[in-house]
Design goal:
Blueprint lengths: L2 E6 L3 H13 L3 E7 L3 H11 L3 E3 L2 H5 L6 E4 L6 H10 L3 E4 L7 H13 L4 E3 L7 H11 L8 E9 L14 H4 L3 H17 L2 E9 L10 E8 L4 E7 L1 E13 L2 E7 L4 E6 L2 E6 L8 H13 L7 H20 L3 E2 L5
Parallel strand pairs: 1-2, 1-4, 2-3, 4-5, 5-6, 7-10
Antiparallel strand pairs: 7-11, 8-9, 8-15, 9-10, 11-12, 12-13, 13-14
Length: about 325
């Protein structure tokens, strides 16, 4: 058996990350692609070996050979396209963030359940060797019962010459800025390591750039376990930072550079270093997992319910920042 994919949206994420994984994984084939610009769709199909190309979502969803779709469009159409795909009987891999709000997430989950198809959200970093090792060590008790977790990601963004046309800073298309685009991945990793977030307080601001979305977000969270969490996400820092840390009475586990795969475990009597670089095709382990689940009928590790939790954290962060109050996540999900 083979999972036969169609791609909806042939931008950069499909070009370099998700697309190549679809035809590199075993029992997985890229059949068709869709982009509104037909010439660009044809070019993508030719370069990536797809059989057919389309310029409308309805056309690719009507392709009977396609049994799963990769929704790689901006967030504002994720819900609409996922629901349409589910109603066409296609399994869905949807890019992050899952949707513009929790209400849209629920509608996506319901549509997939009602039509008997699987939904998975593309938080691919969960499947990277460094994240898998961190989770293994935590489950083995390497730091004891975790009391604090911290995700810190920052860079100095270079705006394009015509920033006004850059969809990632248009709130009606992207939802938000750095928190939505980059922070979402790290929030998902915190959920992987620590479990659900119970409540949070946040500041979500544009402190440096003259844009309508955030370039600075600072979150303080309490997990359902009682442990504390900190999220620090900045587009306006003149140094690259990509750090994930979990600590407890037994020690400290810190990924000093997630993208490079550098991991350190510090305990009272020893320190261990690990180098676990990411795969060359970033989405490949995620796709391999999802294909196995689709072929076996087993549930996947990142269903819509999991993706919705990250969207809820983002939604709660913005609500907290506006109201200057702590937000209970149960009020959203």
């Amino acid at each position: 058996m083979t999972v036969r994919w169609g791609i909806i949206g042939c931008g950069n994420v499909a070009e370099y990350k998700g697309g190549p994984a679809l035809y590199s994984a075993e029992n997985s084939e890229l059949v068709a692609v869709m982009r509104r610009d037909e010439k660009l769709a044809a070019d993508f199909a030719q370069r990536h070996g797809a059989k057919r190309h389309y310029s409308a979502v309805e056309e690719i969803l009507a392709d009977e050979e396609v049994n799963a779709v990769y929704v790689a469009t901006p967030p504002h159409v994720h819900a609409e396209q996922t629901i349409a795909a589910a109603e066409a009987g296609k399994h869905v891999l949807c890019e992050k963030p899952m949707a513009m709000n929790v209400t849209e997430c629920r509608s996506m989950i319901s549509a997939c359940q009602d039509n008997g198809v699987q939904l998975m959200i593309a938080y691919y970093r969960r499947f990277w060797p460094i994240a898998q090792k961190m989770k293994q060590l935590l489950d083995e008790g390497a730091v004891g019962r975790p009391t604090i977790a911290r995700a810190h990601c920052a860079c100095l963004w270079q705006p394009p010459e015509d920033a006004s046309s850059f969809w990632r800073i248009q709130p009606e298309i992207a939802g938000g800025g750095f928190l939505w685009d980059i922070g979402a991945h790290r929030l998902d990793l915190l959920l992987q390591m620590m479990g659900d977030v119970d409540s949070l307080g946040a500041l979500v601001d544009a402190l440096h750039f003259d844009i309508e979305v955030d370039d600075s977000s600072s979150l303080v969270m309490q997990f359902a376990s009682g442990a504390h969490g900190i999220g620090m996400f900045y587009w306006n820092v003149g140094a690259n930072i990509d750090m994930l840390e979990v600590a407890g009475p037994g020690g400290r586990l810190i990924a000093t550079d997630l993208g490079a795969g550098n991991l350190t475990l510090m305990q009272a009597d020893k320190t261990e270093e690990f180098h676990l670089p990411p795969p060359k095709i970033t989405h490949l382990p995620l796709i391999e997992h999802y294909v196995q689940c689709l072929l076996s009928g087993e549930p996947n590790a990142l269903p819509g319910e999991a993706g919705m939790k990250t969207t809820a954290i983002i939604e709660a962060s913005e609500k907290s920042s506006r109201s200057a109050t702590f937000i209970k996540l149960k009020s959203l999900v």
